[in-house]
Every structure is written in structure tokens, then in C-alpha cells.
Amino acid sequence: EQIEKNNFDHFMLKEIYEQPSAITDTYRGRLLADEGIIRMAGVDDNLERFLNAKRILIVACGTSWHAGLVAEYIFEDLARIPVEVEYASEFRYRNPIINSDDVVIAISQSGETADTMAAIKLAKEKGAFVFGVCNVVGSSISRETHAGAYTHAGPEIGVASTKAFTTQITVLTLIALKLAKAKGSISNTDFHMHLQELETIPQKIEVALESNAHIKEVAFKYKDARNCLYLGRGFNFPVALEGALKLKEISYIHAEGYPAAEMKHGPIALIDEEMPVVVIATRKGHYEKVVSNIQEIKSRQGKIIGIVTEGDTSVRDLADHVIEIPDTIESLTPLLTTIPLQLLSYHIAVMLGKNVDQPRNLAKSVTVE
Ligand code: G6P
User: Fold this and answer.
1) Tens of pLDDT, residues 123-150
2) Which are the contacts of 201, defined by CB distance < 8 A and separation ≥ 6?
3) Could you say which of 136, 187, 289, 366 is the most buried, measured as most Cβ atoms within 10 Å of its Cβ?
């Protein structure tokens, strides 16, 4: 097992560190940045279905559902197609309205999640075109869908999903860019800029991983917290949800993710000197607004851990700790902001002596309702 872990203490840590190479594998043969081409057979062969879609419905569970939420922002921003993101378990029992010109995207690492499978079957019965984004090759969901794209993240053993999440976002970004280009909703300059920037992401994740020792120190300070709040806006709101989920899953500390501006409608009541608040405050995307949210936390003595763009000074002045990530374009920030949040929950769980790779009560794939 130690060999399989490649000398990392846990599979989760190994998989966190594999993200640069996993994302490179996701791009391979698909992203031809110099030529300005994205090649994805499953989308190319069904391009008309995608382009004629009045809306895209995304169904998934758990971390895959969070990837779907990130995709909602990306598809709407770049491809200007309305997107709805659904928990598969709710969708299947809601008598949902599904039209034959809808495109349904099902996201699943394992390709075996029972609720997601049931949602796919329902969508197919109603005549929708169903596209799968799976990691496990030949899995049930990849066989049940009309077409799809694999994430090619390699086996994910840790129950808490890490590299599956970032590679799902990568695949969904490639699809959104491809559709944006085909629809003409993105300018040529912007399209090329996105492709070039996507290519730099693995190297930027390497840089983000260099903060590991610092993140471990931050983890030590907050390992005994009873609660933790994660805030983000825009593309990084779903990352806040995912950060909170990671902490809950493996450390059993109660955590909540919230859109930063929504804090004043409830969670702000919880903030005192005992409450760590992780705020994603990258320089792109509502930066000033997030800084003012941070001021509100500070005035209530909350402890602030800011995830910031390198070189940031405004948040540094207010926060108790800052963790830097490299700069990138706004729609790609989730691929970087996720990294410190994974490491933070990993270190807290290890310090608390929890079973990081196999947390209590959780399963890697949930094949029952
Ligand atoms: C379980 C796993 C999660 C995962 C979810 C959905 O709850 O513990 O990590 O996100 O199932 O799984 P899927 O394989 O469909 O992505």
C-alpha cells in the first residue's frame, strides 16, 4: 500500500498533489492551444444537440454537484446557455420538466451513483440528450449516457474527492469554451486567452501547493474549532461549499459554505472570536465587495483566513492569515482556490487523528438510494 501511496502518508494527499498531472491528462489530445482548437469527440459528434439546447440541466451528487455549480457560472458566462444544477436525488422524485431539446449533463467520478443513474434514465425517457462526465472508464453511467467525456484523473482512492473535482471542472470548462466558440458568444481574443491560460493551470497548481507548510501551520491554529464558515462569491461560491464539505467529511468539524453576501442574512449571527471564517478573496471577481464582507467579520472578532491572489495587500491587512494563489482569469480561479482548501482540511483531519482516506459513515461510491 505504501508503494501505491507513492510515499505520501495518505491517498488523499497523494491525490491532491497529483492534480497538476491529472489536469494535464484531462487536456491531453483535447486542448490544442496554439492552433486554437478544442477537440472532444463526444461534443463534436453531437454539436447540433448542444447548440440547439434551450438550456442545460446538470445532475450530480456530492462533490460532483459542486463541480456542476462551478460549471453553471462558466457555461452561462462563456457560452450564454442557461444552466440549472440539480441534486440527482431531488430531480428524480420531483416530476421535473424535461424537454426533448434539453441537454442533460450527468457528472460522476465513480459513474456508479444510484441517484445520478436514476436521473439519467428519467431524462432519457423524456427524450433529452444525456452527456456523461465520468472518471471511471466503462462505468455504468458512462455506458448509460448517449455520449460523454472522461476526466482521465486516474484512480481516486481517498473517499473525499479532490483530483476528480478539479478535472471535472476542467472538462466542463473545455466544453463551455468549445460551445462558446461555435456559438460566437466569445471573441477570438478571449477564446485564445482562455486556452493559453488553461495550459498554465497545472504549473500554477504546483505553485499553490508550495504553500503546504504554511497551510499546515494555519491548520494547527484551528484544528480545535467546533465550527467553521467558508465564504466565496461568483465562480468561487461553489468552491466555498466544496471547502466546507471537505472539512466536514474528514475532520468531522461542522462547516458551512455560504455566498459571502448572504452571510448577513443568517451566519453573521454565529460570528465571534471562536469562529474561523475562510474567505475566498481573489483579486478578480467582486474583490471590493468581498473585502467589505471581511471587514464585517473582523468587526465581530471572527478569525479570518483569506485565500488571496499573490501580492495582495488589502486582505492581508485585515485577515489573521492569508494563503496566496497565483493570478489567473476569473473563470479559472476555482481550479486554484480549491487547492489550499483541500490541504487545510487534510492537515486538520490528520492532526485530529482521523481516518483521512476512509472517514466514518462515508463511502466512495453510493450505489444505493
Ligand atoms: C460519495 C462520495 C463523494 C462523491 C459523491 C458522488 O458521497 O463520498 O466524494 O462526491 O458520492 O459520487 P460520484 O462518484 O457520483 O461523483
Assistant:
1) 999 999 999 999 999 999 999 999 999 9
2) 23, 170, 328, 332, 335, 336
3) 136
Segment 174-201 mean pLDDT: 97
Question: What mean pLDDT value characterizes the chain?
Answer: 96
C-alpha cell recorded at residue 366: 453510493
The model's pTM: 0.97
- Catalytic residue status for 14: no
**Ligand 1 centroid from CA 107, angstroms:** 10
- Number of the ligand 1 atom closest to the C-alpha atom of 60: 15
Distance 60 CA to ligand 1 centre (A): 9
pLDDT at 2: 73
Closest CA to 288 of 315, 263, 307, 321: 315
Nearest to 84 by CA among 95, 68, 62, 100: 68
Residue 136 CA, closest ligand 1 atom number = 14
CA of 188 to the centre of ligand 1 (A): 37
For ligand 1, is residue 114 a contact (CB within 6 Å)?
A: no
